[in-house]
Amino acid sequence: MTAVRIPPVLRAQVGGQKQVEATGDTVGQVIDSLLAQFPSLREQLLTPDGALNRFVNVYLNGRDVRYEQELASAVGPGDTLVLLPAGNALRVDRGRHRAHAPMVGIQRMSPNPSVAIYAKLEFLNLTGSVKDRAEGAHRGPRGERPPAPGLH
């Protein structure tokens, strides 16, 4: 069995579980086993032709499988597969996911392997940042900025 760690954005589709077990000798077989248990994950993880979705990073024991053999990467007993969406780029619903900037894990940034480092991709935030919305609210009808306090 392979442990598959599920990110928060996908946990609702696996009954809220942080980790599930799946079987297979390759990453592709493990994902197939996962999808047999949780079919609603299919369109989030795979393209219609069965390749990994470009918005999903898959790590096998801390190694990005895109730099290995992707879905053909060998999996052994006791291995851990981590699914990490590239931010919340997976089928984002603007109404339900307001003001959420995607987060991406950065590999090999810390010398301590137990430390996880993430980057906030504010430029992918569909609704803009809070500071952008507040700034936009203070613009005039033609988009001009108000004068700075005390300078008019």
Task: Give a verbal description of the structure.
The termini are far apart. The longest helix is centred in the first third of the chain and has 11 residues, at 27-37. The chain is globular and about 55 Å long. The protein is an alpha+beta fold and 152 residues long. A hairpin with a 2-residue loop joins strand 3 and strand 4 (63-64). It has 3 helices and 7 strands.
Number of helices: 3
State the secondary-structure class.
alpha+beta
What is the string of helix and strand elements?
Answer: EEHHEEEEEH
Total beta strand runs = 7
- Quaternary status: single chain
Strand arrangement within the widest β-sheet reads 2-1-5-3-4
Tell me the β content.
Answer: 15-25%
Radius of gyration in whole Å, from Cα? 20 Å
Dominant shape? globular
- Give the proportion of residues in helices: 10-25%
Structure, briefly:
With 152 residues, the protein is α+β, with helices and mostly antiparallel strands. Helix content is 15%, strand content 19%.
Label this structure with key terms.
alpha+beta; five-stranded mixed sheet; 7 strands; globular
